[in-house]
Design goal:
The chain has 283 residues and is an all-alpha fold. The chain is 79% helix and 0% strand. The protein contains ten helices and no strands.
């Protein structure tokens, strides 16, 4: 399958919309929405005319990054690049989802370079904003804070992804043809292990108090009662709803004695002041 230049650019736009620092989907959750390989894979699949395969590959690529956290500017990989360029190359080359995962993870590491270049070049705009603020020109400062960084980010995101989609399909296809047999099978096995690693990282949160019991409960619903994902999700939502309400009531009850004590202290101090004033008036 060939990816046209227009399709390559559109895939790059999807990557840009999910990149860190893009504000356009902030009301929808920003990078927590578009950056997810599952969501990005569906969008890439729509662009390439195969949304079902895009969802399948996006779901497979999502698993290694299920515990992904971006904090404090530290980014060891880029799930957005894996979910766009990785899925696009996987669909175009006709890869198995496991093999697509194996090639998407190294691609995600390349995304760190894009982010480092972006942060390095953005320091130029910071000094320009400082000078505008010193001059008291806040309109210029706001403009420099939004427009030039987004133009730079658009170029840094769209250009490499578009080039990778447009020129990388033949290279990936040739590599896959060379790796036919045991090497490709090994690649698929590695791709099958990576999702387990992502799930294992996510399960590390189960050692928090009160978390493990809910995981066991969900496992029982799925494994022994045979419920599907949607019924289990609905049951989980209902339980979470009542759980939050009960926690709020417990906190309110715990705060009530403190409020009562504070009220008594205030009334006592007020009575003392009043008695002192009455004594002064009497004298």
């Amino acid at each position: 399958m060939e990816i046209t230049l227009l399709q390559s650019i559109l895939v790059g736009v999807v990557y840009y919309l999910g990149f860190v620092g893009t504000p356009w989907f902030l009301l929808l959750g920003g990078i927590s929405i578009i950056q997810k390989p599952l969501v990005a894979g569906v969008l890439v699949g729509i662009i390439l005319g195969d949304p079902v395969q895009g969802a399948i590959m996006g779901a497979a690529v999502q698993m290694p990054f299920i515990a992904y956290v971006f904090a404090g500017g530290a980014q060891n990989n880029d799930p957005g690049l894996a979910g766009t360029l990785g899925v696009a190359l996987g669909i175009a080359a006709g890869l198995d989802p496991s093999a697509a995962v194996a090639i998407s993870v190294p691609i995600a590491l390349i995304g760190t370079i894009v982010n480092v270049v972006r942060m390095t070049l953005n320091t130029t705009f910071v000094h320009m904003i400082d000078r505008a603020a010193a001059e008291g020109n806040m309109k210029k400062a706001v403009f420099l804070h939004i427009v030039p960084p987004q133009i730079l980010q658009f170029i840094l995101c769209v250009t490499p992804v578009a080039l990778g989609c447009f020129y990388g399909v033949d290279a990936v296809t040739n590599i896959i043809n060379i790796l036919q047999g045991r090497p490709l099978y090994t690649l698929q096995v590695i791709g099958g292990i990576l999702p387990a690693l992502g799930i294992a990282m996510n399960l590390r949160t189960l050692d928090r108090p009160g978390t493990l019991i809910w995981f066991v409960f969900g496992f029982i619903l799925s494994a022994y009662l045979g419920l599907g994902t949607m019924p289990v999700a609905i049951i989980g939502f209902v339980i979470a709803w009542f759980y939050v309400l009960l926690e709020a009531r417990v906190e309110k009850v715990e705060e009530s004695p403190q409020v009562a004590v504070a009220a008594l202290s205030t009334s006592a101090s007020t009575s003392t002041v009043a008695s002192d004033d009455s004594d002064d008036d009497f004298e």
